[in-house]
Design goal:
4-stranded antiparallel beta sheet, 23% helix, 27 strands, 5-stranded parallel beta sheet, single chain, alpha/beta, 645 residues
C-alpha cells in the first residue's frame, strides 16, 4: 500500500535557505539518501577555547561568524525511507521554516501492519535493529484479540476504529467488554472427587427437566427431589496440564443478559485467565458463537499481567465502549467502567485467576443483619446438620453481639460435606460484605423413617438484571443523542456514564468511621476503592463529621465520629433540623450497586434515627433514583426495549 511523506527541515535549523537539490522528480531514493541541501545559521560558541580569536583559523574552517556572532552551516535533508521523489515543493533560494513541506516522496509500502517482524502488506523484513533514529515501520500497536504478534501503526489503528464506528452506527450497537471471573461466572478447581456429587445433592439450581421425587422409606415422598445430574447453571471442563477439574457456576440471569444485550452491543471477553481457560468458558456461555464470535482477549495476549486497558482493543476511539468488571483498580478507574457486585458462589475460593493481580482492598466486615437482598452463609448455618432428634441447631445472634459478628469469618458452604478440606483457588475471597455467596435454605426430608432437615444451597443473586437495565438505558441515551447526519460531534458513553453515576448520590456528604483498615502500608482513605467509588457516584467524602455531613458510614457503633454525629442528631431532633444519619456500609454499597439512593431505614445503626431517614426521603423526592432525568424512564421495560431494537 503506497503512502506519501512530506519532508521538512528540523525545527532547530529554522530559518533556512534552500541551496541545492540532490535529486529530481521521478528519482528513486534509498533510506538516508540526501535529497536537498540547505543552509542555516547557528550562534557561534567556542566553549573549549580551541579557536579563540584566530581569524585565519576560522576562515580555514570556513566557519567565520558574522557581525552578530552567527556562523553559517550547510546540511543535507535526507529521506527517512526508500521511495520515489514525486514532487519538489520549493525553489532554490527559498527561505523556509520547519513547517514548510519541501519534497514529497512516495513509499511503495507504508509497512503499517507487521506480523512477527514481516510487513503484512509487502512481506519485507522490518525487524532489523535501527540505528538511524528512523525505524522502518511505525506499527507498534497491538489491537487484536487473539494475536499479540500482529501490530499496526497509529494511522491504521485510527482507520480500523473509524470503520468499526461506522459499522456499529449502521447496526445501532455499542461495544461491551465483559470480564469473566466474579463478574458473570465463578470458577473453582476442587481436589475432592466427591465435590460433584455434593453439589448435585445440595444445590437446588435450575434444571431443564426435574426428576420425580423418590418415596421415603415410610412411604411418604421427600420434600426435596433427588437429582442425578448437575444443575444447568453449573458445568465443568478439564484443561491440559491442570490436573483438577474446573467447575463453572453461571451467574443467575446470564443467558438472558447475553441474549438481550447481543442485540444492542458487540460483546468482547477480556479476562486475566489463560487463553485455554477463556476459550473453554466461552464454549460454555456461548456454545453457538453468536455472542462473542471469537472476540476474546486473555492474559496471554494482554501484554500486562496485572492491568487491563481499553487501548489494548480500542487504541484511538473509546467513545462507544462500555466495560463491566468486578474490579475497577485494574482499569485505573476508567470512566467507561461499570463496576459490578462481585459474584462468589463457592465461598472462600475467590478469583482463581487473580494470582498476578494487585490484592483486593479489604474493609471491616459489617454484621449480616443489614437488609441486604443476599445473605452470606454464616457459621451457624454451616454448622447446622442432621441431628439425631431431627432438630436443627439454631444460631441466634443478639443485638449486643454485633461486635463479635463483625469479626466472624464466613466459612465455605462446602464445609458441610463431611471431612471437606477446600484448598482451591489461588487467592482468598476479599474480606468484605460486597461478595455474593450462595444462600442456604433447609428442607424437610425422610431418612430411615425419621423426618430431618437438610441444608441445601440456593442462589438469589440478581445483579445482572440491574446491570442489564443500566446498559439498555445507556444504549438508548447514546443513540438518542447521536446526530443522524453526523455533523455534530458524537456522544461519548464515558461522559454519559459519569453524569448518570454522579446523579445517584448527588447531595450526599459522607464521613467514614470504622470502615477502612488502619495498618502500616494501608492506603489513606482518599485512595481506597470505596472512597473513590462513592465520589464517582456523586457523593462528597469527608474525613471528619461536620455541619454539612448527611451520612456517617459506620463500620461499628461507639466511635468518636458516631458520638459526634449523635450529638448533632439530638440537637436537630430538638430543633426540627437536619443531622447526619448513621448507617451501615451496606447502605452505600447497595445504593451504588442498585444505581439508586436507597432508603436508609433498613441500614440504620440506631432505631431512633428513623425520623432523620424519613426527612431525608422527603427532601429528595425531586431527585428520584436511577436515571431520573433521562427520558428512558418514560419508555418500555428493559425486555421490551431490547426486543424493539
Amino acid at each position: 500500500m503506497e503512502s506519501t511523506k512530506l519532508l521538512c527541515i528540523p525545527q532547530t535549523h529554522e530559518p533556512a535557505k534552500v541551496v541545492g537539490f540532490n535529486v529530481g522528480v521521478g528519482d528513486s531514493v534509498s533510506k538516508l539518501t540526501p535529497v536537498l541541501t540547505y543552509e542555516y545559521k547557528e550562534k557561534y560558541q567556542d566553549k573549549e577555547g580551541l579557536v579563540g580569536e584566530d581569524v585565519a583559523l576560522l576562515k580555514a574552517l570556513k566557519k567565520a561568524p558574522d557581525a552578530a556572532g552567527y556562523m553559517t552551516k550547510r546540511e543535507y535533508l535526507r529521506s527517512p525511507f526508500e521511495g520515489k521523489v514525486t514532487k519538489l515543493l520549493c525553489k532554490l533560494g527559498d527561505d523556509v521554516q520547519h513547517t514548510d513541506a519541501l519534497i514529497e516522496i512516495t513509499r511503495p509500502c507504508s509497512h503499517s501492519a507487521v506480523f512477527n517482524g514481516l510487513c503484512a502488506l509487502c512481506g519485507k523484513d522490518v525487524s532489523e535493529i535501527d540505528f538511524t533514529g528512523v525505524p522502518e515501520t511505525q506499527a507498534k500497536i497491538s489491537m487484536f484479540h487473539d494475536d499479540n504478534d500482529l501490530k499496526v501503526s497509529y494511522d491504521m489503528a485510527a482507520s480500523i476504529d473509524a470503520d468499526t464506528r461506522e459499522r456499529l452506527w449502521g447496526q445501532e450497537k455499542l461495544s461491551l467488554i465483559i470480564d469473566l471471573d466474579l463478574t458473570i461466572i465463578h470458577a473453582t478447581t476442587p481436589p475432592n472427587p466427591g465435590f460433584e456429587s455434593w453439589l448435585i445433592e445440595n444445590y437446588d439450581g435450575p434444571r431443564s427437566s426435574e426428576p420425580a421425587t423418590t418415596p421415603g422409606s415410610d412411604g411418604s415422598a421427600d420434600h426435596k427431589p433427588k437429582h442425578t445430574t448437575l444443575p444447568d447453571d453449573i458445568v465443568y471442563f478439564d484443561l491440559p496440564v491442570i490436573p483438577s477439574r474446573h467447575f463453572i457456576k453461571l451467574r443467575p440471569g446470564l443467558r438472558e443478559f447475553l441474549e438481550t444485550l447481543s442485540k444492542l452491543y458487540e460483546m468482547h471477553i477480556y479476562t486475566m485467565g489463560t487463553r485455554s481457560y477463556a476459550d473453554a468458558v466461552a464454549k460454555v456461555i456461548d456454545p453457538e458463537c453468536k455472542y462473542f464470535n471469537g472476540r476474546i482477549l486473555s492474559r496471554d495476549e494482554n501484554g500486562s499481567r496485572d492491568r487491563k486497558s481499553l487501548r489494548r482493543l480500542f487504541p484511538v476511539d473509546t467513545s462507544m465502549v462500555v466495560i463491566i468488571d468486578d474490579r475497577a483498580d485494574v482499569w485505573d478507574w476508567s470512566p467507561n467502567l461499570i463496576r459490578v457486585h462481585q459474584y462468589e458462589f463457592f465461598t472462600g475460593v475467590g478469583d482463581i485467576n487473580a494470582a498476578h493481580l494487585p490484592p483486593v482492598q479489604q474493609h471491616h466486615r459489617i454484621s449480616s443483619d443489614s437488609g441486604s437482598d443476599v445473605t452470606a452463609v454464616n457459621e451457624s448455618t454451616a454448622a447446622a446438620g442432621i441431628q439425631d432428634d431431627g432438630k436443627k441447631e439454631e444460631g441466634d445472634a443478639s443485638a449486643d453481639s454485633q461486635a463479635a459478628a463483625e469479626e466472624t469469618t464466613t466459612p465455605s458452604a462446602e464445609e458441610q460435606l463431611p471431612e471437606w478440606d477446600d484448598t482451591t483457588g489461588t487467592t482468598d475471597a476479599p474480606v468484605n460484605d460486597a461478595v455474593v455467596r450462595a444462600d442456604v435454605e433447609y428442607s424437610d426430608t425422610t431418612e430411615e423413617g425419621r423426618r430431618v432437615r437438610r441444608p441445601h444451597l440456593v442462589d438469589n443473586d440478581r445483579e445482572l438484571a440491574t446491570i442489564r437495565e443500566v446498559l439498555v438505558h445507556l444504549h438508548e441515551e447514546y443513540y438518542e443523542n447521536l446526530d443522524p447526519s453526523h455533523d455534530l460531534p458524537p456522544p461519548d458513553v464515558a461522559r454519559i456514564l459519569s453524569l448518570k453515576k454522579a446523579h445517584v448520590l448527588n447531595g450526599a456528604s459522607l464521613a467514614f468511621t470504622g470502615v477502612f483498615l488502619i495498618n502500616p502500608g494501608s492506603p489513606p482513605p482518599q485512595k481506597t476503592d470505596l472512597w473513590i467509588w462513592a465520589q464517582n457516584f456523586g457523593a462528597r467524602c469527608e474525613l471528619e463529621v461536620s455541619d454539612r455531613t448527611t451520612h456517617v458510614i459506620a463500620g461499628k457503633p461507639g466511635t468518636e465520629k458516631v458520638h459526634a454525629a449523635k450529638r448533632l442528631s439530638n440537637k436537630a431532633k430538638a430543633q426540627g433540623g437536619c443531622a447526619p444519619i448513621i448507617v451501615k456500609k451496606e447502605w452505600l454499597l447497595h445504593s451504588i450497586y442498585r444505581w439508586e439512593w436507597l432508603d436508609e431505614t433498613p441500614h440504620l445503626w440506631f432505631a431512633d434515627d428513623k425520623e432523620l431517614a424519613i426527612r431525608s426521603a422527603e427532601a429528595r423526592k425531586k431527585h428520584k433514583g436511577r436515571f431520573s432525568d433521562s427520558p428512558v424512564n418514560k419508555r418500555k421495560s428493559v425486555d421490551e426495549a431490547a426486543e424493539s431494537r
